[in-house]
Amino acid sequence: MFRLLVVPVSIGILVFLFIYFIAPAIFSESGIVSYIAEFSLYLSNSYFETMPPIIASYIANLNLAMVALTLGLLLTVVIQLVVITAGMLICIAKSIISYLQKDRGKEVVEDLSPIDMDPNFMESGPGEKILGRGLDSIDDK
Is the pTM here over 0.90, yes or no? Predict the structure, then answer.
């Protein structure tokens, strides 16, 4: 719940506050508004034959508060979609990994053939002839 709602909303609020209070100190307010109006007009001309009335109304009533609110809300929705998509991809990846691990556990493992050893070592009691002593040339030293 925290990732899906609180984080995107708080980022949207931060973007709103940045555009409304800090951006006018860096860029002129009319420059920001005209850039957004120009971008909206470009998108409208690119995707629609005639400009929809809602976009015309948006551009006609555009001011800094509208720009900040629009960008804050759009960023909130985009971040929510990214978080939901990432969560779904992670869930799918985890289910695939768990399925592959479950399938791997059902493999039949064949035993190796027994090792041929000297019967003296096989029948030795505890502490007498330790298994492995004298088999290598390094043990002779």
Answer: no
